[in-house]
Amino acid sequence: MAYFVQKLLIIIAATEDADRLMDRMTEAGHPVTKISSTGGFLRRGNVTLLSGLEADAVDEVLALVRAECQPRDEYVPVQALPFPGGLPPGEPLQVRAGGATIFVVDVDRFDKV
Ligand code: 2BA
């Protein structure tokens, strides 16, 4: 199928949400590539999804991301962080788990050879 790629979505999601989101995107006909990644702060595995889309499809994919990647609060002991010396000791740190971080980037050119 020919399509005109105008936007690149870079979606960083929790590993436990990413497969479901990929299924929903694929069912809806949106191409997607999964890359294993690691967050700089928690140093936990997460997933980066790349999807090259027509501009009209961006909102539909963002709605799927919102539905499948619900943010939730998690508490992480400061000692479990890779750099405990950098943070004051004491209360566990509240972090956002799940959810997604999304970049929408203009595509100058898209080729397949
Ligand atoms: P991490 O860097 O491992 O961050 C995981 C979560 O830890 C963040 O969730 C946030 O709730 C918390 N956090 C991050 N830095 C913090 C800090 N300096 N102090 C206190 N809490 C902090 P999200 O913001 O939802 O980010 C989830 C993941 O998305 C990140 O994993 C990172 O892999 C990626 N990410 C987020 N913003 C990004 C950006 N501007 N550029 C590139 N990657 C980004």
Average per-residue pLDDT, rounded, comes to 93
The fraction of residues assigned to DSSP E strands is 35-45%
Gross geometry: elongated
From the N-terminal CA to the C-terminal CA, the straight-line distance is 15 Å
Give start-end ranges of low-pLDDT stretches. none
Helix content: 10-25%
As a whole number of angstroms, the C-alpha radius of gyration is 17 Å
Number of helices: 2
CATH domain fold name:
Alpha-Beta Plaits
The sequence of SSEs as H and E is EHEEHEEE
The description of the largest β-sheet is: 4 strands, antiparallel
Structural class: alpha+beta
CATH 2nd-level architecture: 2-Layer Sandwich
CATH class: Alpha Beta
Number of strands: 6
Order of strands across the main sheet? 2-3-1-6
How does this model look, in words?
The strands form 2 sheets. The protein has a 4-stranded antiparallel β-sheet. The protein has a two-stranded antiparallel sheet with strand order 4-5. It has 113 residues and is α+β, with helices and mostly antiparallel strands. The mean pLDDT is 93. It has helices at 15-27, 58-68; strands at 7-14, 33-38, 45-53, 71-76, 93-98, 100-106. The structure holds ligand 2BA. Ligand 2BA binds next to strand 5.
